[in-house]
Amino acid sequence: MAVDFPFFRQLTLHIVVLTQETLRIMLAGCPALESLLLEENVGIACMRISSPTIRSIDLYTPRDKKSVLHELVIEDAPCLERLLSLNPKYGPKYSPVNIRVIRAPRLKILGSLSPGILPSRVATTVFQKMIANSLRTIMHTVKVLALDLVGPDLDAVLDFLKYFPCLERLYISLYSVLL
Q: Of 6, 13, 56, nearest to 31 (Cα)?
């Protein structure tokens, strides 16, 4: 199966069953693609994205625990400037999605990072549950960062921020959890 959409600049995949091969074919068939919205899709445990033209990726994960998506890997996206997880506020009872960025040298906007969608590796570094001391690479290209936190631990935020020295804008949302 091959697709050929040479002029597609924006692609939204909404509530579809995906396989990695189908996603790879779709991305390869859209050589001008700049914006990708992945919204409440199922069927794929580890979503890998490589695209020479993509500039923006927005991820909405399914609202229930039945999602099989456990990891989003940005393998090679030299033009990627914005990576957003747009609905991470479903709380820790939902399976977290790990976000791994291997190569995205132009990444400027990253968020919203939270317990709902945990960034496990950015630029092949590891940080889980916002523990900044496990970072090994400083992200000089990120200019805008959005953090969604459960609890009032701003010391952890301050430790975390030292790995983003070129930030121009920071958005922090704090949520409290009733136990």
A: 6
Q: In total, how many domains does the chain have?
A: 1
Q: Quickly count: other Cβ atoms within 10 Å of residue 7's Cβ.
A: 8
Domain that holds residue 35: 10-175
Model-level pTM? 0.76
> Is the residue at 3 inside a domain?
no
**Does residue 157 sit in helix, strand or coil?**
helix
Domain assignment present for 85: yes
Checking if the pLDDT of 113 tops 70, the result is no
Q: What pLDDT, on the 0 to 100 scale, is given for residue 120?
A: 41
Start-to-end CA span in the chain (Å): 50
User: Is 4 among the domain residues?
Assistant: no
Give 74 or 97, the one with higher predicted confidence. Answer: 74
Label residue 29 by pLDDT band (50, 70, 90): very high
Task: Name the DSSP letter for residue 137.
Answer: S
In a domain, 166, yes or no: yes
71 vs 100: CA distance, rounded Å: 7
